[in-house]
Every structure is written in structure tokens, then in C-alpha cells.
Amino acid sequence: MREWTHAEHVSAAATEIARMADVLRGREMSVPVLTCPGWDLARLVTHTGGVHRWAATMVADLAERRYDRRGMDMGLPADASGYPAWLGAGAALLSEALLSQDPQAPMWTWGGERRVRFWSRRMLHETLVHRMDAELAVGIPTLVPEDVAADGVEEFLDILPYALWNPGVAELRGGGETISLQADTGAGWVITLDPDRFHHRRSLQPGSVTVRTATSADLLQVVWGRRSVDDYAVEGDAGLLGWWRELARI
């Protein structure tokens, strides 16, 4: 697996925003988004574009606290037909903010890394997952570069312990059981459940339960709950895997 720089994450995030905007252009915004129950494309776009602008504003200010996104003027068009262009315009705003700051500069984040560079990686994968949601909603193939998808799986595992708004995360403990996520492309992770926490490492070893997929993009959809594990090979304790997937949500 490659190691990413802040600038590479910024560039990849801008690419994902453009791809998502392209998927949405000319679509009816009332189309349901089945992977985000209760949402339609309009809600998906306003959420994603709003998060970009919220993060960009905090990065520009090197915010020491969380800003209230609900109280911010996002400049949303009155006509929903303008939503894809509005989403796309957020790429420049986000990139400018992220590249204007030292990636090591301290600021508020909700993850473990309290620095600017948290947001370049987070915005890449926030957008990527919602781009996949849009593609699934309109019925077009979802393609993700292997290096981006692999980083996305690892990012999910890195930030999951900090998703404290989900009480299920606190229950992800055990007695040494392991969950192995393996892609045929050579990317792999093993999650270990300890009595006081869980941790993960890159590894190609099987676990108490092992999920095997063709690509990291498949694994990305599995960990984010966008695909059923029934589509893939599962070896070992399927009950452990079901328990993990039920609780491991962001």
C-alpha cells in the first residue's frame, strides 16, 4: 500500500468531487438513495457539499472548536437543478483552504489526528463513499482506483474508535478475536478485539473470521455498509462478523 501526502489527498478529494458532480448532472434530485435510508439525491448533494464548505471554513480559520454546520450559509441554489454545479464548485473552495495551511497545523477535528491533514483525508473518503451512493442510486457502475479504496478502508478503521456518537462503538471489545479483511489485490487488515479496545494492523493473515473480496473497493463498500457480505467469501465465525458490522458504524 502507498503512503499518501496531504497534497495527494487534497488532489484526490477534488477529483472525487468532480466525479460525483458528473454523476449527478442532469439527474432528477428526487431519486431515492437506498444506501442512505430516507435520503434522495438532493439530500445527498446538500449534505456532501455542505460538509465540504464546513470543513473548508474550519481549516481556513484553524478552528479550535467544532463549527455548527446548521447555522452556516452554504450558498445553496434555490433551484435543485443547480445542485450538481454547486457541489462541483466546492472542490476549489476546499482545495484552497487545505493547501493554504500547514498540514501539521493543530486544529479541531473529531478524529484522533488533531491537525489540518485529517481533513484532506476525511474529505476524500467522505466524498468517495457518497459518490458511490449516488452511482448506486442511479444504477451506474462504481469504479474506484485500488490505492484510493485501500486508503479508504484503512481510514475507516483509523477513525472508527472516535465515532463516539454511535454507542455501539464502545461495545467493540472482546477476548482477542480477530476479523480479517482481505482483497485479492494484496491489501489486507486484521482487527483484534481486546478487553478494553480494538486495534487494527495491515496483515494478510486470516482471522477468527475472514472476508475475502476481489478488490479494496469491495472491502470499502463492506466496511461502510454499502454491500452485503453475502456477495463475498466468508471463512470462519460468521456470527462475529455480523456482530462487528452491526456495531461498527460511522
Report on the structure:
This protein is of the alpha+beta class and 250 residues long. The protein folds into two domains: 6-143, dinb family like domain (Four Helix Bundle (Hemerythrin (Met), subunit A), Up-down Bundle); 150-247, SCP2 sterol-binding domain (Nonspecific Lipid-transfer Protein, Chain A). Helix content is 44%, strand content 12%. The chain contains seven helices and seven strands, in the order αββααααββββαβα. The protein has helices at 6-24, 41-61, 83-99, 117-138, 146-159, 216-223, 238-247, and strands spanning 32-33, 39-40, 178-183, 188-193, 198-202, 209-213, 233-236. A five-stranded mixed sheet has the order 5-4-3-6-7. Strand 4 and strand 5 form a beta hairpin. Helix 2 packs parallel to helix 3 (83-99). The longest helix has 22 residues, at 117-138. The protein is globular, with a radius of gyration of 18 Å. The mean pLDDT is 97.
Output the number of helix runs: 7
Q: What order do the helices and strands follow? A: HEEHHHHEEEEHEH
Count the domains: 2
CATH architecture of the largest domain: Up-down Bundle
The poorly predicted ranges are none
The CATH superfamily of the largest domain is identified as dinb family like domain
Mean pLDDT: 97
- CA-atom Rg in angstroms: 18 Å
Query: Which shape, going by the Cα principal axes?
Result: globular
Helix content: 40-55%
Annotation, overall tally of beta strands: 7
Top CATH class of the largest domain: Mainly Alpha
| CATH fold node name of the largest domain | Four Helix Bundle (Hemerythrin (Met), subunit A)
Instruction: Describe the main β-sheet briefly.
Output: 5 strands, mixed
**How is the largest sheet built, in terms of strand order?**
5-4-3-6-7
**Terminal-residue CA separation:** 24 Å
Fraction in beta strands: 5-15%
Q: Helix/strand/pairing class, anyone?
A: alpha+beta
